[in-house]
Amino acid sequence: MGRLQVTVVSAHGLKAADLNGKADPYVKLFWRGKTYKTEKQKKTLTPSWNETWVLDWDDSGDNPQLVFEVWDWDRFTSHDLMGRLTMQLQNLNPSNPIEGAYPLNTQGQLVLRFVYIGPPQQAPPQQPQRPPMPMPQAPNYPAAPPSYEGSSSNYPPGTDEIHHAFPQYSKDRIADALRRCNGDRDAATTYLLEGYIPQQGSGRPSSSVRVDPNAVRELCQMLPQCTEDQVRRALQKANGDKERATAILINDLIMMAQQANSGSPQHHQANAAQQQQMWQQSGGGAYNSYQSSGAPAAPPLPQFHQGNVGAGAVRPSGRKKALFIGINYFGTRASLRGCINDTKSMKNLLCSLYGFADTQYTMVTLTDDQRDPRFVPTRQNMMTAIRWLTDGAQPGDVLFFHFSGHGAQQEDPTGQEEDGLNETILPVDFQRAGMITDDELNRCLVAPLPAGVRLTAIMDCCHSGTGLDLPFLLESYGGWRWTQDTGGVFLHADVMLISGCEDDDVSADAAGKFYSAPGGAMTTAFCAACTSNPYNQTYPQLMNNLHRNLRNRGFPQKPQLSSSQQFDINRPFAFDDIHPNMNQYIGRPPPQPGRRRRPKRKANAGLAGTPLGGMLGVGAAVAGGVIAGAILGDIMGDLLF
After folding, report:
1. Shared domain check, 392 and 512
2. CA dihedral sign, ordered 284, 288, 291, 295
3. Which residue intervals are annotated with compositional bias (Pro residues) in the record (predicted)?
């Protein structure tokens, strides 16, 4: 066991946090369950600390990430997070210390020095080496890594071997994984399936890792198919990290379901090369080709008109596309933990059990830990990716949309929503660029689709019940049956949304569980249900399984299914079982003359008292005197101390 000296040297370019145009910054380091903190520096945006901590460092490389946070100290109110930086140090050399200025995920840079102390006989530190690449955390991360998509160069050794075992991944994706993992085939396979690069020796559970019994209980409730022993081993393998342990367990469940159902006629793995070729032949392009034209404005909804009612089932074309969006909102008061993890789990589920292929023509993932700014979930990138998903869709095509992050509400200016409120999803830059409303999603994601196209959407966020403005809701009151949402839009295509909660609910208890959960409540429940019975559960059975999973974990919200078509709910759930159009009229029915629906409640009322509610200004006037006093106290503190 070696030691690592970590020195927080200074910072520069920080964003002002106090009314005097300055800040009182200090730094926290989170590592192996411990928190280290520097002294605060008053009234400065260029603080200097030069404080050093010594950490026990595993020589085998089995070390967690180093997480640094810069905070602004306030005397009378809670301290403010100014920025965050996550780093993974590998291949340290005792003879070469590391020093560099590393960008925070908001604004400014943190100057750090690392000195690895090896055995006594090793040489003392000499000249600094090139700084390591920090783990990306923000949409303004400076440099994009080289792209290997579509590379004409020779594939690295091991590409064909992995592609033969996992044909759903294109050779370009596999080559990229091998390069990221320095040719390690096992590590590259883990990166493809679970979304992270394992450290040396991390594949073996360590019996020395102390496992939190509460974490075991929580993960057993999340994934009831897993035994306590399996959960304990996953936590040991993940060094106690619940988020990574969840990914490991879901991956294990998917692999077991894949093996158990390998002889089922519904089970097949897509051939990535064939999927890509089919989309290329139809004129479909890679997501990168849509960046130059940017995100188009949402088209207006068509006038309410008579539709073309289809007859007979639609045969799947074999072409499938998927868009995954996961946002953890790093560096904000409302940061989340599990959303990026959700995209990895859903992607693995679809590729392993439901015939989707991972190529640049068939899958796009937007997360706020991306290095490439084109794949960061800004508002513009999200709308561009939605355009990519729907562009060129033809009868028989199967599409999938997944969003895991924050949801909210806005007052409906048209007065057509039944509750008077528009449901919204929040891009990573929502405070600057704005939210995306359900009206926009309806116009851009579902309205352009022709009859015979199937779109399945999963939205794991607050206020997501009618997040696509679909006309039919599957209700369980007195037995499962269809009801009509009077504010819904009738469509030609076969569109289905499974949402994390109803419109007036918050997803996963906004009082705390939502912000600390290692995975989104709805996504994790969906993965658990699909791995337990991938091909033979009816829609009522699926919804009952989702509700039971959430209820057993103490979550009060109720998942909801909405659809553009009233189909037979006793048929087995499937992504590619396409229902023909049965709607005689298309579009949103015109409102009754003189009737305008007003909000039944204040927008985002359920978010009052939560970090997101604070960012949205919810409840700011509720305790005016208390808040005003706290603000005055902060002003005096900034000026006097």
Report:
1. yes
2. positive
3. 121-145
Q: What is the pLDDT of residue 363?
A: 94
The string of DSSP codes covering 307-333 is -----SPPPP-S-EEEEEEE---TTST
Please report, for residues 255, 259, 351, the alpha-carbon distance to residue 174 in angstroms, rounded to integers and kept in the order given. Answer: 19, 22, 14
Greater pLDDT, 613 or 438: 438
Compute the chain's Rg from CA coordinates.
Answer: 25
405, 336 in Cβ contact below 8 A? yes
Residues making up the chain, counted from first to last: 641
Residue 533: give its domain's CATH number.
3.40.50.12660
pLDDT tops 70 at residue 449? yes
- Give catalytic residue positions: 406, 462
Q: Does 353 or 633 have the greater pLDDT score? A: 353
- Total number of domains in the chain: 4
The domain spanning residue 58 has which CATH number?
2.60.40.150
Q: Token pair for residue 154?
A: 């020779």
Q: How far is CA 579 from CA 313, 576, 582, 585, in A?
A: 6, 9, 8, 16
Q: What is the pLDDT of residues 357-377, one digit of tens each?
A: 998 899 999 999 888 888 999
pTM, rounded to two decimals:
0.68
Per-residue pLDDT, 497: 94
Boundary (domain end) residue, out of 85, 117, 149: 117
Assign 3-class secondary structure to 237-276. Answer: HCCCCHHHHHHHHHHHHHHHHHHHCCCCCCCCCCCHHHHH
Domain that holds residue 25: 2-117
